[in-house]
Amino acid sequence: MKTLYDKIWDAHIVVPEADAPAILYIDLHLIHEVTTPQAFAELRRRGLRVRRPDRTFATMDHSIPTTSRSLDGFDDMAAKQVRRLEANCKEFGVPLFDLNSPRQGIVHVIGPELGLTQPGQTIVCGDSHTSTHGAFGALAHGIGTTEVGMALATQCLLARKSKNFALHFDGHLQPGVTAKDMILALIGQIGTGGGTGCVFEFSGSAVRALDMEARMTICNMSIEGGARAGLIAPDDTTFQYLAGREFSPKGSAWDEAVARWKQLPSDEGANYDRTVSIDVSNLEPMITYGTNPGMSIPLTGRVPAPENAADRAALEYMALAPGQLLLGHPVDVVFIGSCTNSRLSDLRSAAQLLRGLKVSPSVRMLVVPGSFEVKRQAEAEGLDRIFKEAGAEWREAGCSMCIAMNGDAVPPGKTSVSTSNRNFEGRQGKGARTLLASPLTAAASAIEGCVADPRRFGGLS
Amino acid sequence: MKVSSRVVCVPRENIDTDQIIPARFLKVTDKAGIGEHLFEDRPDFRVPKGSAILVAGGNFGCGSSREHAVWALMDFGFKAVISTGFADIFRQNALKNGLLPIVVDRETHALLRPDTVAAIDLAAQTLSIGDGPTVTFPIDSFSKTCLLENLDELGYILKHEQAITAFENRK
Prior knowledge:
- The complex is a heterodimer.
- Chain A is of the alpha/beta class.
- Chain A folds into two domains: 1-284, Aconitase, domain 3 (2-Layer Sandwich), CATH 3.30.499; 286-457, 2-Layer Sandwich (Aconitase, domain 3).
- Helix content of chain A is 31%, strand content 16%.
- Chain A has helices spanning 4-10, 37-46, 76-92, 107-113, 145-154, 179-190, 205-208, 212-220, 236-242, 251-261, 309-318, 344-354, 372-380, 383-390, 439-448, and strands spanning 13-15, 22-25, 28-31, 56-59, 96-97, 122-125, 139-142, 156-159, 163-170, 198-203, 229-231, 274-279, 286-288, 296-298, 333-336, 364-367, 393-394, 415-418, 433-436.
- The radius of gyration of chain A is 21 Å and the shape is globular.
- Chain B is α/β, with parallel strands linked by helices.
- Chain B has two domains: 2-138, Aconitase, domain 4; 140-171, no CATH class.
- Chain B is built from seven helices and seven strands.
- Chain B has helices at 17-20, 68-76, 88-97, 106-111, 141-148, 153-158, 161-170, and strands at 2-10, 53-56, 80-83, 100-103, 117-121, 126-129, 134-136.
- A seven-stranded mixed sheet of chain B has the order 4-3-2-1-5-6-7.
- At the A-B interface, helix 2, helix 3, helix 5, strand 8 and helix 11 of A face helix 3, helix 6 and helix 7 of B.
């Protein structure tokens, strides 16, 4: 009796765990400009090559401009890092989806979009939100730069097995409540360290009912609950999403792959070290009020009283008072984007509210698609016009204001409602105050100029 | 590996890697001098130079996988961090760079005040606190061997090249 995690783990053991950790084979290694230069330097120092350039794919996303695809006049250090990635990929034979490629985008958006991400795989990337790919039933987690070097040189990592942690979501979501609200509620319940040492497996009827993009939103934020990886068992929704994508298996290979993938779900009666169940039927849209993603409340709720010095410091940083309603709290910036919520369905959901309306004059709104392809599709259905006519900025694909490395930043002391994944102090810019929420809540807040409830706008399914 | 030093403390829980090293300092292509920006945006976490042991609150190093956080701590002069718990990726990154992540219980943690002298003996897995107790701490035996014998993990995997090739041929 094995869990999904047990099955993927067992299928990738090159050398079993004993006194030493297991040597675990990596099927797919995604790389980007920020966490690789020192890894390539180490390979060069040791005279090593990239073992499997055919299993390694590079893109640029973290520090690139989203105002245009040109690095002319851009931040010198960022431009140098991007150029270094180009040179490293050329030298080591790694395929690169660069700024001019129609395959470029946030690494966790393009992997699934291209069909590189597949059920049953092991996937790593020097980025903690690699957990996103777990939505496909792939064991995917973030690694540091030393491990990037190991994966480049050996296609393997040293690993110890984590614990199995089942997160069971049942019930039906109410209109205006989304996958983002589910994961914010969960992290609020278990805390940011709640999943340390574990791999999450999300299950239950409320997870089954989600489309792949919503599932990615949930797995994306596993790391915010302390788990390096979060998994969802593949099903017909998964297979339909992957069918026909560029790197998906074709013809008889596809049929064989689907037959194999159908064996992946956890066996009935498989053992989990820990289980948490949540009924989503009465879940409200969620929003964060503090400085870690576990500090969340229902949108209509009040800021809780601090329990310790860290809570007090968080409220002071956020300029919020205990007992305060967040609804109606003034907002300066709204950001729709990031590997959590920058896919087509996220943009559609924001556009649905903004259609024919204006962004409040006191708000700067940035809409940053997750990939070139997301941007192309959004433009094909006219979403860009809705955003632009509302007064929002429509950008090129990248991480942008989620990590604020590229000049897209929230000014000091200003408050943003952001669809990204982290509300840490300074995450969106030095002194920035971040409220994490769904694309619906973000769009409603942009219109109202303050934290607003998307359910007031009606017409939500 | 033995470390003896007065400790410095950042006792807050959940200190994420964005606090340790803000993202704008990740545009580097090497590791040199990165310690200058340790806790750059957190004046309340700034600690004097000269100590080799940082004492931090629980879930230290949560958030981003940036190894720059470990590089910054080491470049600043730290050889060990003591906490009630570490985030998974940070702990891995620390061990791979020779920064010792030492987990202690809350009672032991409470004994570690600023300027307490602590002595760490990795071989014995002990932490001795000033005039106070000596406690043992857990560490994965493989990581311990790697640190004590200066073994190289990448070199270790490369020694299993044949097993990797055999695995690839089976797939």
